[in-house]
Amino acid sequence: MESGISRENRLKIYFAPMEGITDGILRQTHHRIFGGIDVYGLPFHKLTQTLSLLTREERDLAPEENEGLCVLPQALTRDPEQLSAWLYYVSECGYACADLNLGCPSPTVTKRGRGSGMLREPDALRQFLDRVFANTLPVSLSVKTRIGYEDPGEWPELLDLLSAYPFSHMTIHVRTTREQYTGGIHPEAFTLAVRKHVQHPVYNGDLRTVEDIRRLQESCPETEAVMIGRGLLADPALARRVRGGASAGRDELQAWYMALYEGWADKFHPTIALGRIKKLMEWPAGEDIRRKRLLRRADTIEACIDAMLDA
Ligand SMILES: Cc1cc2nc3c(=O)[nH]c(=O)nc-3n(C[C@H](O)[C@H](O)[C@H](O)COP(=O)(O)O)c2cc1C
After folding, report:
1. From atom 5 of ligand 1, which residue's Cα is the shortest distance away?
2. Residue ranges around ligand 1 (CB below 6 Å)
3. Assigned domain for 2 exists
4. For ligand 1, what atom is nearest to the CA of residue 17?
């Protein structure tokens, strides 16, 4: 152990990008109340020919939206020119790093050969990356990938392919595209990346508790970074707890839900905000049928919070 710093304190923790959930309001609220996160991933920007970004994508990059946070913008594209233009835009907005999405398993994305659809065509992926890295990039580029399209057996070759490029780090969601979000996970795929000395590998997939993270560190002591998504929705204090901090207090959770609701009601509409809160609360509610029923019936933010904290 170096200078009294525990492994948990040195572990870098990314908040996973989750489209439709981890917007600026959630990121800022999370940082203010719970903290413990080193980098917040921004949900993907779906690049187009015209390079016009959606309002939510532009807002995501606005410096005031991310004040005080370290964030990682992300692109979804299979076009090197689109990516290059977007990287310059990201750089002009003041960011130093950006991420390439090779992990999205949604059929509407993969059937166009984007996201994890690119993993199905290694030759096309290689040509794409050759062109991406042919010129000096204005920001450093990382990649977020799955371990194959159909089968985890694709990973060793895919890993060799991706490792040939100077990505600043590689986030590995240890599932195939076919496995979507709930199929089996393959932690050994991450260990292989560590053993092959991939530049800064980041483990991602089903880290829900402090124990899950400890177990990962025990099985792979070289783990230097993890990305957590749904685990942080279920327990927003998870990253803080990993670093030895306190569990989420009742007042904190109340403040968390209320701030999210008020932020979303202001940004969208109270009805939409309530819908989003209910969706988010499904994660901490887990398999608690009674809580879920109360939540379904709740028609105010107060009733939702009561369902979560008092039921
Ligand atoms: C609703 C939802 C939206 C997501 N959106 C994105 C996204 O925009 N970009 C991305 O790279 N991954 C996205 N993901 C995948 C997560 O970042 C993460 O890789 C995945 O949930 C596995 O991590 P976890 O088990 O810690 O949640 C999304 C996942 C969910 C559930």
Report:
1. 18
2. 16-21, 43-44, 74, 101, 103, 144, 173, 181, 204-207, 228-231
3. no
4. 17
* Cα 56 to ligand 1 centroid, rounded to whole Å: 17
What range defines the domain where residue 191 resides? 7-242
> Which residue's C-alpha comes closest to atom 31 of ligand 1?
18
Gap from CA of 2 to ligand 1 centroid (Å):
33
d(C-alpha 71, C-alpha 74), whole Å: 10
- Domain count across the chain: 2
Same domain, 152 and 196: yes
Q: Are residues 68 and 169 in the same domain?
A: yes
Q: Which of 204, 136, 195 is nearest to 175 (CA)?
A: 204
The length of the chain in residues reads 311
Distance, CA 107 to ligand 1 centroid (Å)?
15
Q: Considering the domain boundaries, does residue 54 fall inside one?
A: yes
Say yes or no: 171 and 32 in one domain. Answer: yes
Residue 171's beta-bridge partner residues?
Answer: 144, 202
Mean pLDDT for back-to-back runs of 10 residues, the chain (311 residues) = 53 97 97 98 91 81 94 97 95 96 96 96 98 97 98 98 98 97 94 95 98 97 97 98 97 98 96 96 94 94 95 66
d(CA 130, CA 113): 17
Domain membership of residue 1 (yes or no) is no
Q: Which of 268, 263, 174 is nearest to 223 (CA)?
A: 174
For 96, other C-beta atoms within 10 Å of its C-beta total: 12
Q: Are residues 142 and 257 in the same domain?
A: no
Separation of CA 4 and ligand 1 centre (Å): 34
Query: pTM of this prediction?
Result: 0.96
Ligand 1 closest atom vs CA 21: 1
